[in-house]
Amino acid sequence: MRILHCIPSMLGGGAERQVCYLAEELVRRGHQVDVALLQGGPNLERLEAVGARVHWLPPLQHAWDPRGPWHLRAVMRETGAEVVQTWLTRMDAWGGLAARSLGLPWIFSERSGCVFTSSSMADRGFRALIGQTDYVVANSESAATAWRGYLGPAHKIAVVSNALPVDEIARAPLADRAALGVAEGAPFVLFSGRFQRAKGTAALAQALARLLPSRPALHAVACGVGPSLDEFRRIVDAAGVGARVLTPGYRNDLWSLMRSASVLVSPSHLEGRPNVVMEAMAAGVPLALSTIGPHRELVPEAASQWFDIDDVAAMTRAMAAVLDDPEGAAVRVEAARAVLGAHAASVMAEAYEKVYREVLRARR
Questions:
Q1: Fewest C-beta atoms under 10 Å: which of 8, 46, 176, 315?
Q2: What is the pLDDT of residue 237?
Q3: What percent of the chain is predicted at pLDDT more than 70?
Q4: Residue 165 has pLDDT above 60, yes or no
Q5: Residue 301 and residue 260 share a domain
Q6: Which residue segment(s) compose the domain that 304 sits in?
Q7: Is 47 helix (H, G, I), strand (E, B) or coil?
Q8: What is d(CA 98, CA 75) in angstroms, rounded to the nearest whole number?
Q9: What pLDDT does residue 152 have?
Q10: 49-69 residue pLDDT tens
Q11: What is the CATH number of the domain that holds 99?
């Protein structure tokens, strides 16, 4: 099969990593894999190394620029694409319009579980466009349920779990603590994600402001960027613990950080299939997670400490419980590892192959 993936960039997000894992398996299975991009990033080298062919689009700034679909039409013709799969909103819009105009099967990759329910013209237009897909493929049952509620039971919707390179994560070296500024042997809390309201980062800062003062050896490493980063820093600085809350931006050694961390915290309000949590499970770091559906769907009850979103006191207690009970944390780590077998890249690729074949058969 000739499969074209359309995604805005190869930056450090979860969708970008999943495209890399999927492309590698599809190439291994003998398929032609092409990827249309606007921007590179830390995942580009891996994508090119696995044998996917990259096609660069002009640097169009506006998400609704009408030239986007036109340029993607040219890529679809050049590659002879039989199936088009889109990732993330900009390429969902551009790629969907281009695929529809050429009569090509179009698969929409749902990443967040958000059905864009506002009454704005953009959200109404996006929902109407997704209704024209041949298939919606979500990475969690909660996301699939949301779209079933909007599109109806007749629309083709599948759940394909994210892939996880378990062996690769396990081989990652331990983090360079000196480069981080964390003393050898000192415990540290790890967060990785975009600094924005939907990720619960303000509540996390407040929880760290409560947790760190009574634990002078404890540090926190909060990786990522985003519009709420300055707010996060102001909160921990005001509490007098800013020097022990490190915000190093995007890190390409996240698996090493996970293997060295004392607890991974995810205070998110909204996720699709949370890649960072999956990777933490493979790395063997104890978890403290918000009680949202995608976390609950992925992680067994006995494999994490849990807290309600934006409940600062409960988040503080959950992190403290992990730090104060290493034996209990080790038991939860093993409970988390026990569910990882279903997330092999080969399992994901096989499930997508089934979807591709189904949409092609339906067009014959």
A1: 176
A2: 98
A3: 97
A4: yes
A5: yes
A6: 166-342
A7: helix
A8: 10
A9: 87
A10: 999 999 999 988 777 788 999
A11: 3.40.50.2000
3-state secondary structure of 263: strand
Residues 85-130 pLDDT 10s? 999 989 999 999 999 999 999 999 987 756 555 567 767 777 788 8
Shared domain for 236 and 315, answered yes or no, is yes
Mean of per-residue pLDDT scores for the chain = 92
Closest CA to 349 of 166, 169, 168, 161: 161
Task: Using CA atoms of 161, 163, 166, 169 in order, give the dihedral in degrees to the nearest 10.
Answer: -120
**Average pLDDT, stretch 325-344?**
89
**Any alpha helices (H) in 131-200, and if so which ranges?**
141-151, 166-170, 177-180
Nearest CA-CA partner of 78 in 50, 51, 55: 55
Task: Name the residue with tokens 């402001």.
Answer: 209
- Tokens 């013209």 belong to residue: 121
- Rounded CA-CA distance 316/51 in Å is 45
Could you count the other beta carbons within 10 Å of the beta carbon of residue 313? 12
Q: Give the number of other Cβ atoms within 10 Å of residue 277's Cβ.
A: 22
Its pTM stands at 0.74
Number of H helices, E strands in the chain: 16, 13
Nearest to 243 by CA among 219, 262, 260: 219
CB 222 within 8 A of CB 245: yes
Angle of helix 67-79 relative to helix 89-102, nearest 10 degrees, comes to 60
Which of 202, 199, 177, 191 has its CA nearest to residue 249? Answer: 191
For residue 353, give the amino acid letter: E
Task: Check whether residue 271 and residue 189 sit in a common domain.
Answer: yes
Question: Tokens in use for 189?
Answer: 């809390």
The DSSP H or E segment spanning 34 is strand 32-37
Instruction: Report the pLDDT value the prediction gives residue 68, as an integer from 0 to 100.
Output: 94
